[in-house]
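Researcher: Structure prediction, please.
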Amino acid sequence: MSKHSRSGGKYTGNHTTLIPAASIVCDIAAACPSVTKITPGYIKAGLKSANGHRRVKITEKGNAIMLSVRDNASHQEVYVYASDVKSAKLAIAQGAKDKGLNVGFSSE
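Model: Predicted structure follows.
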């Protein structure tokens, strides 16, 4: 198993491979007690370089949080489901910021 692949526990879906920045964010989300499910999406690779800037955009979508994660040359969306969306969103944002990722918020 790759160091950027996650499965079991809170991880669901067919796509368990994560880009490096998404693996950081997903590990933070998995450690949050109110998070019930994490579903990684497709990886878009080969994008124009972001000059090493890694960022995550957090969007609340009903009872889920969509994390749009951009690494240097790739992008991935991850859906996080939680019993307490507000606290999970805050914990993910703070953890990502502590790990050096740029954090932004978007409305639905």
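Model: The chain has one domain: 20-106.
Researcher: Thanks, that helps.
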